[in-house]
Write a structure and sequence with these properties.
With 191 residues, the chain is mainly beta. The chain is built from two helices and eleven strands. A hairpin with a 2-residue loop joins strand 4 and strand 5.
Length: 191
């Protein structure tokens, strides 16, 4: 079921994120990883390139330990897809055909419906500038994560913003094979 937020978005156009800049950093010991990522809400923009195709638009994502609700919109603010994760799995509502699709895994579901994989579970950590639990190869500079290799993804952090005394990522570039996902986070809300 599409919520009213699908129709009312304040997100405007989408600016492309600048290309990733190679940063030289000394590896530091991994920072502690929490069992569950902290809750947050972000509003921003996303640009995706995959298999010779591209998507760009707005992103609104509310995350808690128990659930996720993500809304992808066109550059003009029209809803494209709503992704909801809860205890029953992941549901994606495609605005084009108003069809709801359900699966246990967000990556396979988004690839099947949208044509590209969205690493929802890992991203809940990565957008906060932290590695997800498991094997990872982080690189830190001045105490901030600048590159992370995890679960087949390379995540580069291109900028941070200060939010309530905490430095949180503002620009993130995720790459896996021929899939590139660029995020620009314009607004953060944390507990």
């Amino acid at each position: 079921m599409l919520r009213a937020g699908l129709l009312v978005l304040l997100l405007g156009g989408c600016a492309a994120v600048p290309p990733a800049v190679e940063q030289v950093a000394s590896p530091l010991p991994s920072q502690p990883v929490s069992a569950k990522p902290a809750g947050f809400q972000i509003i921003g923009r996303v640009a995706v390139q995959y298999d010779g195709q591209a998507f760009s638009g707005g992103l609104r994502w509310q995350h808690t330990a128990a659930a996720d609700e993500m809304l992808l919109s066109s550059p003009l603010g029209q809803g494209v897809a709503q992704i909801v994760r809860d205890e029953s799995g992941v549901t994606l509502v495609n605005a084009a055909d108003q069809q709801a699709y359900h699966a246990q895994d967000a990556e396979e579901l988004t690839e099947g419906v949208l044509g590209w994989r969205l690493p929802l579970s890992g991203m809940a950590y990565w957008v906060r500038g932290k590695p997800a639990p498991g094997t990872n190869q982080p690189r830190y500079e001045a105490g901030q994560l600048v590159r992370l290799d995890q679960d087949g993804w390379q995540i580069d952090y291109l900028g941070y913003s200060e939010v309530s005394g905490e430095h949180l990522p503002r620009k993130i570039f995720l790459q896996r094979g021929d899939l590139d996902i660029r995020l620009v986070i314009d607004e953060w809300a944390t507990p």
